[in-house]
Amino acid sequence: MQLLNVKGTIGFMAKRKIAMIFSAILMISSIGIFFGKGLELGLDFTGGTSVEVGFSQPADLNKIRTVLSENGFPDASLQLFGTSTDVLIRLAERGKDVKAEVIGNQLMDAMMLVDENAQMRRIEFVGPSVGEDLKEQGGLAMLTALICILIYVAMRFEWRFALGAVAALAHDVILTVGLFSLLGLEFDLTVLAAILAVIGYSLNDTIVVSDRIRENFRKVRIDDTLEIIDMSLTQTFNRTLVTSITTLLVLIALFVWGGQIIHGFATALLFGVFVGTYSSIYVASAVAVALGVSKHDMIPEVVEKEGAEFDEMP
Question: pTM for the complete prediction?
Answer without folding.
Answer: 0.76
